Amino acid sequence: MSRVLLSALLLTSCAAEVPPRAEPGDPRVMPVGAVAALDGSFSEGDGLSYAWAVEPEGATLLDAESPFATLIAEAPGLYTLSLEVCDESGRCDTAETWARVDAPGSANKVSDWGIDTFASATSGAGSPGGLMAQDPCDKCRDAASGTSSQWVEYCDTLPTKTTAQKQLQAICYSQQHKDSSERKNWCGWHFCD
Questions:
Q1: pLDDT tens-digit profile of 93-148?
Q2: Which of 30, 78, 90, 176 could covalently link to 34 via disulfide, CB atoms 3.0 to 4.6 Å apart?
Q3: Neighbours of 146 (CB within 10 A)
Q4: Strands (E), the chain
């Protein structure tokens, strides 16, 4: 009986020693001057300490030793965001994500994409009630005034043929829990002149 108890104790103590794993979150695209909340809370491990870093210069991090740091985009560019987490035993793991910061007026808007992007049987030109049936700016702002569920339904209508379009849709989804004025500002940046 004591062998069974000893084996169970050994298995339990080994199972508790999970090595740390850093999780810095998804990439993001944002305009100069924007502020983004970084979330490293999905990192794994016991008693973690956090250390965020950004390269190259041109962006600032606040609360860099917290799981919830803040990124302030001060200049256009592609920034590497790294998160190092260390557990109580001193074991560490580092992972990276990125942020693309666009200069004012350089971000892709729907009007930059051309009609063939939207022409299909289910959306855009030729389909009743498709994305182009209403001005993209107005459609986005209408959705921004609605509920979170209506916002997600709107994001589902965005085209996803290219990587840039998929990124835009992912960013759209990330606005779900923002208030309507923040979502309208997002619409203005991406879809309105």
A1: 999 999 988 887 654 444 444 444 344 333 343 333 333 346 788 889 999 998 88
A2: 30
A3: 14
A4: 28-31, 35-37, 49-55, 59-62, 70-73, 77-86, 92-102
